[in-house]
Amino acid sequence: MAERSANSETESAPESIWSRRNFFSAAGWVGLVAVFAAWTLGFVRFLFPRVLFEPKTTFRAGRPNEYARGEVSARFVADHRVWIVREGDGSFFALRAVCTHLGCTPIWFAREKKFKCPCHGSGFRPSGENFEGPAPRALERVQITLDAEGQLVVNSAVRFRRERGEWARIGARVRGSRRG
Fold it and tell me: What is the value of pTM for the model shown?
Protein backbone atom coordinates (compact mmCIF):
# COMPACT_ATOMS: atom_id res chain seq x y z
CA MET A 1 0.00 0.00 0.00
CA ALA A 2 2.86 2.24 0.63
CA GLU A 3 3.94 1.73 -2.93
CA ARG A 4 0.57 2.73 -4.21
CA SER A 5 0.56 5.97 -2.30
CA ALA A 6 4.05 6.85 -3.60
CA ASN A 7 2.96 6.17 -7.18
CA SER A 8 -0.16 8.18 -6.73
CA GLU A 9 1.90 11.08 -5.42
CA THR A 10 4.17 11.02 -8.47
CA GLU A 11 1.22 10.63 -10.79
CA SER A 12 -0.65 13.49 -9.24
CA ALA A 13 2.38 15.82 -9.06
CA PRO A 14 1.91 18.71 -11.50
CA GLU A 15 4.17 18.85 -14.54
CA SER A 16 6.81 21.57 -14.42
CA ILE A 17 5.67 24.76 -16.18
CA TRP A 18 8.96 25.01 -18.11
CA SER A 19 9.12 21.66 -19.70
CA ARG A 20 11.05 21.35 -22.93
CA ARG A 21 7.83 21.42 -24.96
CA ASN A 22 6.51 24.55 -23.25
CA PHE A 23 9.86 26.35 -23.53
CA PHE A 24 10.17 25.80 -27.29
CA SER A 25 6.52 26.68 -27.83
CA ALA A 26 6.99 29.99 -25.97
CA ALA A 27 10.24 30.70 -27.85
CA GLY A 28 8.42 30.11 -31.14
CA TRP A 29 5.66 32.53 -30.21
CA VAL A 30 8.18 35.17 -29.08
CA GLY A 31 10.07 34.77 -32.37
CA LEU A 32 6.85 35.08 -34.38
CA VAL A 33 5.83 38.22 -32.48
CA ALA A 34 9.33 39.70 -33.00
CA VAL A 35 9.20 39.08 -36.75
CA PHE A 36 5.72 40.60 -36.96
CA ALA A 37 6.84 43.66 -34.91
CA ALA A 38 9.90 44.15 -37.14
CA TRP A 39 7.75 43.88 -40.27
CA THR A 40 5.22 46.36 -38.86
CA LEU A 41 7.99 48.79 -37.89
CA GLY A 42 9.50 48.49 -41.38
CA PHE A 43 6.11 49.16 -42.98
CA VAL A 44 5.49 52.23 -40.80
CA ARG A 45 9.00 53.50 -41.65
CA PHE A 46 8.15 53.04 -45.33
CA LEU A 47 5.17 55.37 -44.90
CA PHE A 48 7.47 58.15 -43.66
CA PRO A 49 10.44 58.13 -46.05
CA ARG A 50 13.64 60.04 -45.45
CA VAL A 51 13.48 63.19 -47.49
CA LEU A 52 16.35 65.51 -48.35
CA PHE A 53 15.19 69.06 -47.71
CA GLU A 54 17.17 71.39 -49.97
CA PRO A 55 17.02 75.16 -49.88
CA LYS A 56 14.74 76.94 -52.29
CA THR A 57 16.32 77.70 -55.64
CA THR A 58 14.98 81.27 -55.67
CA PHE A 59 16.06 83.78 -53.05
CA ARG A 60 16.37 87.54 -52.55
CA ALA A 61 19.92 88.84 -52.46
CA GLY A 62 19.22 92.35 -51.18
CA ARG A 63 19.25 95.76 -52.82
CA PRO A 64 21.84 96.78 -55.42
CA ASN A 65 23.17 99.61 -53.21
CA GLU A 66 24.30 96.98 -50.66
CA TYR A 67 27.10 95.90 -53.04
CA ALA A 68 30.19 97.93 -53.87
CA ARG A 69 31.28 98.26 -57.50
CA GLY A 70 33.77 95.57 -58.43
CA GLU A 71 32.77 93.46 -55.42
CA VAL A 72 32.42 89.68 -55.38
CA SER A 73 30.07 88.83 -52.54
CA ALA A 74 30.31 85.42 -50.91
CA ARG A 75 27.32 85.94 -48.58
CA PHE A 76 25.26 83.23 -50.26
CA VAL A 77 27.91 80.58 -50.89
CA ALA A 78 27.22 78.61 -47.70
CA ASP A 79 23.43 78.51 -48.08
CA HIS A 80 22.89 78.65 -51.85
CA ARG A 81 26.33 78.07 -53.47
CA VAL A 82 26.11 81.37 -55.36
CA TRP A 83 28.39 84.41 -55.63
CA ILE A 84 26.94 87.82 -56.48
CA VAL A 85 29.31 89.92 -58.63
CA ARG A 86 28.84 93.65 -59.19
CA GLU A 87 30.84 94.96 -62.11
CA GLY A 88 32.33 98.42 -62.45
CA ASP A 89 29.46 99.62 -64.67
CA GLY A 90 26.92 98.76 -61.95
CA SER A 91 25.55 95.58 -63.54
CA PHE A 92 25.24 92.31 -61.63
CA PHE A 93 25.60 88.64 -62.41
CA ALA A 94 25.49 85.57 -60.20
CA LEU A 95 27.95 82.70 -60.47
CA ARG A 96 27.19 79.17 -59.38
CA ALA A 97 29.83 78.21 -56.79
CA VAL A 98 30.46 74.76 -58.24
CA CYS A 99 33.69 73.90 -60.03
CA THR A 100 33.06 72.55 -63.50
CA HIS A 101 35.73 69.89 -63.02
CA LEU A 102 34.38 67.69 -60.21
CA GLY A 103 31.85 69.86 -58.36
CA CYS A 104 33.91 71.20 -55.45
CA THR A 105 33.19 74.68 -54.12
CA PRO A 106 35.91 77.12 -55.21
CA ILE A 107 37.18 79.81 -52.84
CA TRP A 108 37.24 83.54 -53.70
CA PHE A 109 40.65 85.15 -53.15
CA ALA A 110 40.08 88.91 -53.19
CA ARG A 111 43.79 89.84 -53.26
CA GLU A 112 44.48 87.77 -56.36
CA LYS A 113 41.03 88.53 -57.77
CA LYS A 114 40.33 84.91 -58.67
CA PHE A 115 38.37 81.87 -57.64
CA LYS A 116 40.51 78.84 -56.84
CA CYS A 117 39.21 75.30 -56.51
CA PRO A 118 40.75 73.59 -53.46
CA CYS A 119 40.29 70.09 -54.90
CA HIS A 120 42.39 70.16 -58.07
CA GLY A 121 43.61 73.74 -58.49
CA SER A 122 41.31 75.09 -61.19
CA GLY A 123 41.39 78.87 -61.39
CA PHE A 124 38.60 81.18 -62.51
CA ARG A 125 38.55 84.93 -63.17
CA PRO A 126 35.94 87.13 -61.46
CA SER A 127 33.84 86.84 -64.62
CA GLY A 128 33.76 83.06 -64.16
CA GLU A 129 36.10 82.20 -67.05
CA ASN A 130 38.53 79.37 -66.38
CA PHE A 131 42.21 80.07 -66.96
CA GLU A 132 44.11 77.33 -65.14
CA GLY A 133 43.78 73.79 -63.95
CA PRO A 134 41.72 70.86 -65.14
CA ALA A 135 38.30 72.59 -65.23
CA PRO A 136 37.00 72.07 -68.78
CA ARG A 137 34.80 75.17 -68.92
CA ALA A 138 33.85 78.41 -67.21
CA LEU A 139 31.67 78.61 -64.12
CA GLU A 140 27.95 78.67 -64.79
CA ARG A 141 25.97 81.83 -64.26
CA VAL A 142 22.54 81.66 -62.71
CA GLN A 143 19.54 83.87 -63.32
CA ILE A 144 19.51 87.23 -61.57
CA THR A 145 16.74 89.80 -61.90
CA LEU A 146 15.29 92.82 -60.11
CA ASP A 147 11.85 92.45 -58.59
CA ALA A 148 9.19 95.16 -58.36
CA GLU A 149 10.61 96.36 -55.03
CA GLY A 150 14.09 96.83 -56.51
CA GLN A 151 15.69 93.79 -54.83
CA LEU A 152 17.98 91.35 -56.56
CA VAL A 153 16.36 87.94 -57.02
CA VAL A 154 18.54 84.93 -57.81
CA ASN A 155 17.16 81.71 -59.28
CA SER A 156 19.86 79.03 -59.19
CA ALA A 157 17.67 76.58 -61.12
CA VAL A 158 18.13 78.63 -64.32
CA ARG A 159 21.73 78.31 -65.51
CA PHE A 160 23.70 79.94 -68.31
CA ARG A 161 26.83 78.40 -69.86
CA ARG A 162 29.48 80.50 -71.58
CA GLU A 163 30.47 77.95 -74.23
CA ARG A 164 26.89 77.90 -75.46
CA GLY A 165 26.79 81.69 -75.73
CA GLU A 166 24.20 81.92 -72.98
CA TRP A 167 25.97 84.57 -70.89
CA ALA A 168 24.52 87.22 -73.20
CA ARG A 169 20.92 86.08 -72.63
CA ILE A 170 18.36 87.99 -70.60
CA GLY A 171 18.60 86.94 -66.98
CA ALA A 172 22.31 86.17 -67.03
CA ARG A 173 23.01 89.78 -66.08
CA VAL A 174 20.97 92.64 -64.66
CA ARG A 175 21.55 96.37 -64.38
CA GLY A 176 21.75 97.76 -60.86
CA SER A 177 18.55 99.75 -61.14
CA ARG A 178 15.39 99.86 -63.22
CA ARG A 179 16.45 103.21 -64.69
CA GLY A 180 19.30 101.61 -66.55
Answer: 0.68
